[in-house]
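One such shown below:
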Amino acid sequence: MNTRSKQEDKELDQLERFIRETPMEIDLVNRTMNKYESSRYTKQPESSRTSKKIRQRVIMIAASTAMIFSLILVTSLVSPTLAATIKQVPVLSSIFKLAGDLGLQTADEKGLSTKLNTSATHDDFTLNVSEVVYDGTRVSIAIERLHTEGELSKETLIDRISNIEFFINGDPRSSFAPDPENAMNGFNIYSGKDNDSAIIEIVDERNQGGRPFPEQFDLTLSTTITGIQDPLKIEIPVKNKIEDTVTLQPNVSRQYDNIHFTIEKIQLTPITTNITTRPILTDNSPIAELAMGIDVVDEQGHKLKLIGGLGSYESNGSDMIMDHRYTPFESIPKTITLKPYIHLFKEYPKGEYQMDENGEPKIQYIPELEVTLPINSQK
């Protein structure tokens, strides 16, 4: 005998319809309704307030269970298009961390870089920027080519790049050069963690008389890919997060033969060691023929790895202001020693390096130009 009121029948119908209209593969309707009916007929009649609480609880349980099974169902039914899109998301392994540059590894590990996932696509070629760091001396940008599943390429990413232009807050990078009209679009690009990745680096020419980059700016990367007409443009937010920079301006000079050598500036950051020097050939010979380099060591003899450089000629070409960029010291040293050297060349063919037994270019130190400086951690 059915003792339910019309109102209760109506509420049960609504409950059953609610459960049935919830999309899921497992049918919870009969199980839920039977449980409700059994509970109702095995208990004494209760107040309408208690009955309302029971109905609310049943609805909440049914809805929650339905949502769980719906999520399982949706996950298992991802469309091929969405799956292909997901496969294009870069694997979370930092290019900086695997690039072999101690400074960039430090930036990644200490959170000094900015993680990104910004890309541009033309003609099925997708270029992604995954990370950027700026320490006041160099801007390093991690880029990678994204592939769809099964796509292979024999050419490296660097092979495909034919040109890159840079814009800082909308202004061409050349506007920061000492002579914007004759500025060169110089940048360094070297391998990343694999053939589909690379690291691009640019620097300003503040030590050569140009304008420094701002501490924070929007960088537009306009990359031309071989075989694709339109460049891929990506907007990159850049910010100098470095606070513990040591800057020295010793202006110490040494003289040997016709070489006058001055150390103008030293910058130490957790990412880069930058040494600014001014070599002058006093007999007015072309400075380009000197082919001089510098080794940098601390008081314990640890030698830094050279990662790049930038120079500009002064006066008649016998004078140059040169920035030498090295990997950082693991900790601020007590002293650093700069050891200038010259490369040794073969007589024939002219301009070719002499090589040692390890296949490295031979060098000859010039001890008369060597300088040891104390580091007082001045900022």
In short: The chain has a mean pLDDT of 81.
